[in-house]
Amino acid sequence: MALLLAPATLTVAATPARAVVANVAISATVASNGTTTLSYGGTATRPGTLRYILVSIPPGSGGRITSVNGAVRTVSPGVLQWRPTRTLTVAVGARFSIPFYGVLLPSGGPWSLSFRAIGTTGAALSAGTGTLVRPANVRITATKPIPGQKTTLTYAGTVGRPGILTAVRMKLPTGATGSLTSVNGTLTVASGYATWRPRSPLSVRGGVRLAIPIYGVALSKYGGIMRLGMVATTSTGAQLMAGTGTLALIAPPAPMPTILAGSFPVRPAGCPTAWPTTAAENAKPGTGAWVIPTTMNGPLAAYLTKVSATCGSAVDLKVTSGRPVSVVAYRVGYYQGLGGREVWRRDGVPTVVQPTPTIGGTANGHPLRMASAANWSKTLTIVVDRNWVPGTYLIKVSDGRYAAYAPLTVRDDTGRKHSLLIQQATTTWEAYNWYGGRSFYSSATTGSGRLTFDRPYAEGQGSGQFLPLEQGLVVWAESKGLDVTYWTDNDLDVYGGQLAARAGTIFLPGHDEYYSLRMRASISQAIKRGVNVASFGANATYRRITFTDSTRRSWDVDRYIAGGSSTLWRYLGDAYASQPLLGAEYSCGIFAANLRTGSGWLFRGIPVGTVVPGFLAGEADYVWPGLYKHPGLGIVASGSAKCRSTGTSTPMHSTAFVAPSGARVFNGSTFTYGCFLVRRCPSNLGMPAQSVESRRVVTTMVTNITNWVGRGTIGVTEGAPELRVAVPNHELATDD
Q1: pTM for this structure?
Q2: pLDDT bracket for residue 736 (50, 70, 90)
Q3: What is the Cα–Cα distance from 394 to 377, expressed in whole angstroms?
């Protein structure tokens, strides 16, 4: 809304009055209801107190005309008077700006119109004329406004000046191709523009509406909200009309293949048909002995030959040390605040110093640069029996001087449906894993194109990103006694068709970035079948991978077609972005910033305006205006932070929507939900230490999210029990 800029506090300009001119300018914009807003501007050439302003409008204008900060009336045909509602004293050089809304312009144009500001003495404080050119009011429509489709574009605009039309130049959508044609003239295409020329010069008058169709436009797979220009000119280049219009090219979610459920694994003899409840399991004695102090960090490392297992599985452990080691399996949970329970051990296990991991491999003529410790010899075999209650496990290997973890997830394959399933982001752990000297992120030219689980994790003392980002969510769920079960990204690829049979709600962890087609299709299918999804992180389902075989011990990521861009799901087109699936899209890695709570359901039980220091950290998502937005999608929390790569500000939007199936989907859009729950966020994200109070706030948020997304089926109570053990603060590998 424009305002009259002539406050009484203005002082007289130092410039002599005779050097100041009225400089009258008149412009027009078309409102959404089809009426026109006329804006009159003029400079005061004489000081004084304003009584009223007189303006002329085009003869034949109509409409219900209004303004702001004053009263409008018609004093004679084609003349309006605007009288201010308060006393205004102006100085020489002060600028008037008066909008008149609701004008219905007649045909024709341009028009020479007058502007006259009259003071209380009757003297003119400003007077002059200006030229009004009818606004082009450009509108651009598409028969199929969907990225990747072939469509007909129609550009329409209003002529502002009469003249002989010889050409209309139109900006095409970015990346548009095709054999383009039109009617009643010739069409040429060059440098992203289409120029239409009539068969013979056309005489046009002001107010005529031009409409130029362009047939055969093949839209790019990338869309967005595009601002496209349209200019009509004479043979001398004089403009008869110029303006821009908005064209929204929004891709709906990409179709995904159906993932068959298949059958549950056969239950081996000796394995139970049902497992203890979470509450019963966590009532067993816990221990803090699972913690590895930083003084024991060193060359010892270990990995398992399976990412996940089930009762009856045998898993090989490979260790490099050269000294006898103890191998102890701890189930991660709450356990009286101690965080783990010992379920299995072997002491005095002999080890060797394993060979250096290999780096190499090729596929389709491309170097894979895969770091692998598959050349290591087996240290021992672990049989997962009925004592291994399904859950997340840390296998601690220690030679008395050094120690490291090897993580394992044990599934519940009994066929029972749980209220909640928490997923471990194993493919993302592996992408950032630099053990052996290579990761996906080593560099643009040396990063791996194939990653393997046949090596230890370098992060989290061998736990990958589990301890830095994910343990908090596990401990919280177990402390509440929730009906929770677990699996990994690898299991989502294998058993994704069973998701609706295994759980009513799935939680994705803090950084679940790397997804195969089966993984993405399984999440999409689960939502359509009523499974609720909560992503307690950012940058989920962002990069596209392909497992190399049915063992899923390695996977490829295509970095060769277009570098980092070709690794993205969105490289296939906007329909494959994360936002059409989960509600928001990755922006950038961010410097830590604060969250200020609001008043919606996410912050129920938290005072409005509470500040959570450093809660926005790691990476951030937001709702991109040019990508598909789910009907009813809401932004339930927001903030801003600076991108690490550019230093510019980016928004953060936590989102929620209800799918047509009734499934509820939440996207958290920051890494830190899980780590705040245990007050142990990654040490290198620039965050202040998490306080007891900030942990309570985030715990309440996680409780509210769980109760909302679970539709009352999970049943979480308030409270934020704390771990009683001192766990080291780990760094988190990041992509800048």
Answers
A1: 0.91
A2: low
A3: 21
